[in-house]
Amino acid sequence: MKSLSVLFSMFVLAVTSGCLSPVQETKPNELSAAEKKAGWKLLFDGNSLAGWRNYKKPDAPKQGWVVEEGCLKLKQKGGGDIVTTEKFTDYELRWEWKIPAKSNSGLKYLVSENRSAPGPEYQMIDDAVKEPANRSTASFYDVLPKDKNGSTLIDQWNSSRIVVRGNRVEHWLNGEKVLAYTLGSPELKAALAQSKFKNIPDFGDKIEGHILLTDHNDESWFRNIKIRELVIP
Fold this sequence. Notes:
- Mean pLDDT is 90; it is low at 4-16.
- The protein has helices at residues 4-17, 33-37, 186-193, and strands at 40-42, 52-54, 65-68, 71-74, 82-84, 91-98, 104-111, 121-125, 158-165, 168-173, 176-182, 210-213, 220-229.
- The chain contains three helices and 13 strands, in the order ααβββββββββββαββ.
- By secondary structure, the protein is mainly β.
- It is globular.
- 34% of the residues are buried.
């Protein structure tokens, strides 16, 4: 019989390598009764790509993106960016993600399919790669750096959150608000003018848009992707 320590080590390996969680009120990709009452809904059901399709295409990808161990996983390059079939305006979005060392991923929001750059990107990257501050994890990619420190947990689950309320946007990382900015503000326009997006009309303005997960050619895992739409008076 295997010793208790060996069995425990095997359990820990299973938890960290897949979508299992050692301590969690609900299973991954399930909503609690309180969440349902508060208006949360899942954007990923844990079993399929239902609700997602390739960016600028009508169907879900045939390769690259897979559902594995209850996770939405970019297994290999070539899957392309994927977007929600629905659009959203004011909301709170939460998700969990995991990447290997030296990897890069991103989540874009307020996404339009009618311009060359889809929308603002919440960067997800191994910060050991030493990108500029406005390209670190939880930054507004290439535009605004984080207001507070906070870096990626490598090969471990990270928890992220975006709140879009009116023109106000917040980025959260592992339980801490790390960036806040105002869409259409002079400060944002000044930062955009120094970015790669400077020549893209209405980039950084408030629009109704999709949520997008990027294919940056690196393996990445996602779970517990959920959204709560907000009513603005």
